[in-house]
Amino acid sequence: MNASTLAGIAQALEIQPHHQDWHAFVQRVETHGSHLHALLFSLYGQREDFEAQFTRILTTTARAWLERPADLKRLDAEREINPRWFQSEQMLGGIAYVDLFAGSLDGIRAKVPYFKELGLTYVHLMPLFKCPEGNSDGGYAVSSYREVNPSLGTLDQLRDLTRELRANGISLCLDFIFNHTSDEHEWARKALAGDPEYRDFYYIMSRAEADAYDRNLREIFPDQHPGAFTPLSHWTGTPANNAPSDPWVWTTFNSFQVDLRYENPAVFDAMAGEMLFLANAGVDVLRMDAVAFIWKQLGTICENLPEAHTLIQAFNALSRIAAPSLLFKSEAIVHPNDVAKYIRPDECQISYNPLLMALLWNSLATREVNLLAQAIHSRSKIHSDCAWVNYVRCHDDIGWTFSDEDASLLGINGYEHRRFLNQFYTGRFENSFARGLPFQENPKTGDARLSGMTAALAGLEKALADGNEFEIDLAIRRILLIHGIILSFGGIPLIYLNDEIGALNDYGFREDPHKAGDSRWVHRPVANWADYDLRQTTGTIQSRVYSGLRHLIDMRKAQPALATGVEAVETGNPHVLGYAHYHATGPLLVLANFSERPQMASAQTLHQQGLSWPAIDLITGNRVALHEDVALSPYQLAWLRPA
Ligand code: GLC
Ligand code: GLC
To answer: Are strands 204-206 and 180-182 parallel, antiparallel or unpaired?
Structure first.
């Protein structure tokens, strides 16, 4: 790094070169600066003012480092010594909406004892920033990254919360919603009003140009608007006359979510400042929202472009310099080939595992484990410094993002199969146990995704309505089975809070005009604390789900083997999934029956894979002889260790 660049920055920030913090900054720039420079050069190097842009970005980074609180700098140092801290059998995540779960940030603080009771070490709070009133896509339209939504609390309360969580061994994850801002963000207001500096922050173009892009784009929210654009007249009130020269604005999601234009380095610099501000507020993990969409290029589908990766790597390099303990979690709900590309130590260290999620639901519907076993075999390996975040449900819809090529190897037609899954989970398929709702059905493509709480999709809602005790039992087994898989799959298991007490769908959203058009609200219930109390009352649904899950959590936390990656194991039975951890403390074999009938795993098949020891099932405590066929009851999960 050019010494005069650094000297110039020190001078601009009025910092003495021998200042201890500055010294640490210079050291980190020596380590990561040239990498950052190369990344930014590949994005912006064709500009004449590139070096000035780079200095500006580095100045933003330096300022953030100098402002970083001392306790966070200590955390940085701890995690630099233990960079794989998140790869531990102790890790357990939970997701919650601040308002729906506890009313406010202080309300969340009051729930810390509950988080500890459940065993959480990681909490993802849904977007809590200032956002438009009414529909804000659940807060995913941010009007200021530096202001907490006043109905939830203040920035100081957020800082207090992060400290309290950390003191209790819990990391905080917040979203970095960096693909778009809300249309009420100051930058967007200026842009939409015609300020040229801020117009360059967004994509505003003629209908003819928009058409040229639209030709290759996937529609993400077809219910909201066709294509990816919204007419500028939506904001200015000037009626459009559908002339090819009318200006249009890029809005991949809702019209009030305006896509940022990272081709402009000023956008990168501005968002770098916002990102490091969040890190300095005490956020441990940033959930990198909608990563697939952040770079656009005419003539492409504008998803998962190589520059999107470069951009995230550049943000990562900045955080190595100014907030080294920060982790990135990738939210790419796309083809598994593309999901994998975001997972690298220098890009996103952790990633949602949407394939495992979708295929768990697939196996519950089909009672077959073929796609799941194939995915474990060919798609679960990632870099050893990275980890999957394994989940069953989250606040979003379920998209059937398995690979059509993989499916066809098993004789499955992807298109037809997705149709079946949507039919099954919306309860339109005969004998389905599920009660989900379709999300964003697109009549043009036949595409659809799915909404619903775990308990509703797994059959509990229907079984309760039918008063069918037998089906209730099966539904609870399904819920525990799929959670038992995410708890034993390596990486970080993530529970969508309310699922741990078997909460059902909430149809109240249909009465709210700001929510009625978005079926994802069916699985965003207000936490019912009277129901939560019932987790303590033996025999209730809440207690049956909660205590079953708690037991699995206790077992997980006692098995270091479960923090590591998995290897596929054949079981000789199409209904029984198998995988194993091979760890210094010995092997751990997982068997899972995805059918409502008793099944056997074949001793001969296991033996051929070297799995024929006398075992103990950690879940039941029973001894199991692997040299005999292993009997599994309906939906039984077994975690087998050498006895
Ligand atoms: C992410 C969020 C989703 C939101 C979208 C747009 O996918 O998970 O809820 O609608 O980004 O920000
Ligand atoms: C993001 C996610 C996608 C989701 C959408 C809205 O695009 O990647 O999976 O469907 O947001 O929910």
So the answer is: unpaired
Q: How far apart are CA 456 and CA 463, in angstroms?
A: 9
Reduced to 3 states (helix: H, G, I; strand: E, B; else coil), residue 173 is: strand
Q: Which residues lie below 8 Å from residue 110, measured CB to CB, with a gap of 6+?
A: 102
Please report the pLDDT score of residue 533 as a whole number: 98
> How deeply is 238 buried, as exposed, middle or buried, from its count of CB atoms within 10 A (0-12, 13-18, 19+)?
exposed
pLDDT score of 240: 65
Q: How far is CA 150 from CA 110, 172, 201, 354, in A?
A: 18, 20, 26, 33
Place of tokens 């380095």: 265
Nearest to 341 by CA among 378, 306, 295, 390: 306
- CA distances (Å), origin 249, targets 230, 243, 320, 439: 5, 15, 34, 24
Residue owning the nearest CA to atom 6 of ligand 2: 396
Please confirm, yes or no, whether 404 is among the known catalytic residues: no
Question: Is pTM, for the whole model, over 0.85?
Answer: yes
Atom of ligand 1 nearest to the CA of 221: 10
User: How far is residue 275's CA from residue 264's CA, in Å, rounded to a whole number?
Assistant: 17
Model confidence pLDDT, tens digit, residues 237-258: 877 677 888 899 999 999 999 9
Please report which ligand is nearest the Cα atom of 254. 1
Q: Is 331 a catalytic residue?
A: yes
Low-confidence stretches of the chain (pLDDT beneath 70): 240
State the ligand closest to the CA atom of 293: 2
